[in-house]
Amino acid sequence: MTMKESAARAAVALVEDGMAVGLGSGSTANFAIRALGERVRNGLRITGVPASGESHRIAQESGIPLLSDPPLSGLDIVIDGADEVDPQFNLIKGGGGAMVRERLVAEAGRRVVTIVDSAKLVDTLGAFPLPVAVLPFGAKRTQALLSAYGGNPRFRVRDGKKYVTDDGLFVIDLDCGAIPDPKALHAAIRLLPGVVDTGLFVNLTSDVFVGHPDGKVEHFLANDRPAPWRQTA
Asked: Residues near 72 by Cβ (< 8 Å), separated by ≥ 6?
């Protein structure tokens, strides 16, 4: 079992009968969705809200009943991955391009669980390029404006064309370097014309499950912040 799968399965154990569950997007979240599907086939009754077209497809294949949008009453729990996690539980997300919907799902959650392998633990965010979702109209100007906040702002490309998200947006990846104040950077970039969202998620995560190479899974709570990351080779 991989580190990602170990963390995902540990997090899925938190899900109880009757819950509305936010289903994240990406390789780690996919492990959680499939593990939830196993529990559904064994009698667990839940409703899922997927954060991307891919997670919707995997959840359907796994037999999880789905809603298309987060209910107004909110979600009992959200389980999703991240590209980086700092000791204050700030995240960089969006490596898969789904951060706009991932934020909508996360902000609807009463408990937001982040699942990662130990390689995603960092002292300070910023080694991973920061994804920024932008409107296609005026995107080149938005790209130029983003250069004030980091180096080499570049459109994400797939199959030789600009990558387009499930919501019809482009993604610009930005090399910020160390991000000492994720909240301030997120707020500043969000004010730029054409920007829809960034991959910085601040003060949203309540739990972090970390899978390690030795097979162990650590569970950190928000009360543990700053979390004492145990880096393993």
From this structure: none
